[in-house]
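We modelled the chain as a single entity of 151 amino acids. Its sequence is:
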Amino acid sequence: MLEGADAVYSPACGEGGRRPEGGAPHYDSVMSTLLLNLRNVPDDEADEVRTLLDARHIVFYETRPSRWGVSAGAIWIADDADADRARALMASYQAERQARARAELAEAKAQGVAPTWWSIVRDEPLRVLVTLLATLLVLALVALPVFMLSR
């Protein structure tokens, strides 16, 4: 049973939100809403989302990534009443960011500076070779049971 600072008691439990003597705790039923999982999210995008939420006066909080990478951290909306508004803002922000990224890629392609497969092979041949060898090793390991069962 949770005690002390780890317990979240609802004010409906009694005086000061404490558990009634000998009774079961009553936990607050309000939960935060996940807005953005920060796994593989660039820092500039996370900063823009924070700024957008601040500008619209939407209360949010963040959880930090775990030490071993199990959790990447997230941005949560604290109030359920703001959740729908935050999702709508996030959808319009992501559509705008997508359009901006596609325009930047189109401009880079027009200027001839967009990365291509051959430019990556030319610039980083060792990385490409190691990736291809690792891919072939995985495919061989997947195919190995088929060859062993066919004998």
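As a brief sanity check on the tokenised model: The two ends are 58 Å apart (CA to CA). The longest strand covers residues 33-37.
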